[in-house]
Amino acid sequence: MTEQKYDKEGLCPACGSIDLSDSHPQYDRNICWFETTCLDCNTKFDAKYFMIFTDNEILKGERK
Ligand SMILES: [Zn+2]
Questions:
Q1: 47 CA to middle of ligand 1, Å?
Q2: The pTM is what?
Q3: What is the 3-state secondary structure (H, E, C) of 1-60?
């Protein structure tokens, strides 16, 4: 198993590279994550974010 050396946004946790490729985000309640692959060392990891509500915006043309 790859050792985790870095725990910062935008850095590969194994080698610290910023050369990452991420997928579409996935959601579960107020957590979202991107399954990410490091293009330098090929480590796959989930980059997780905590989502904070800002506001509701009614979309024009969507009401009936
Ligand atoms: Zn890496």
A1: 13
A2: 0.77
A3: CCCCCCCCCCCCCCCCCCCEEECCCEEECCEEEEEEEECCCCCEEEEEEECCCCCCCCCC
